[in-house]
Amino acid sequence: MKSTLVRQDSDKLADVVVRGMQEKKGLDIVVMDLKELKNAVADYFIICSASSDTQIDAIARSVEEEVEKLTGQNPWQTEGRMNREWVLLDYVDVVVHVFLRDRRQFYALEELWGDAEIRYIEEETVPTR
Hints:
This protein is α+β, with helices and mostly antiparallel strands. 39% of the residues lie in helices and 26% in strands. Helix 1 (4-23) crosses helix 2. The relative contact order is 0.22.
């Protein structure tokens, strides 16, 4: 069981990631809470879709910038920048997935982790600064 402080940090990081996705109009944003699942690889998977490879890159960069600006963290691992169909940003406790729509349907992570608590982010909830 993770400590309360670590859980609070991953909760805050998840919120920052969502904000970064919203800044570049990420589509169909889903926050999957994996904290209560046995053998989960992270506390959260946060998934969104993009309509083009250019938007995938913009969303991923926006997430990285928001997280670095507000928490000082950089991803531990980054995958998929070259193929530009699915970019993964691994912040250890929070794993970010930015997909082209058809790739997201193909991999169906929401179904793979179907026991997770899933929160759908409404598109009109873009925070103001």
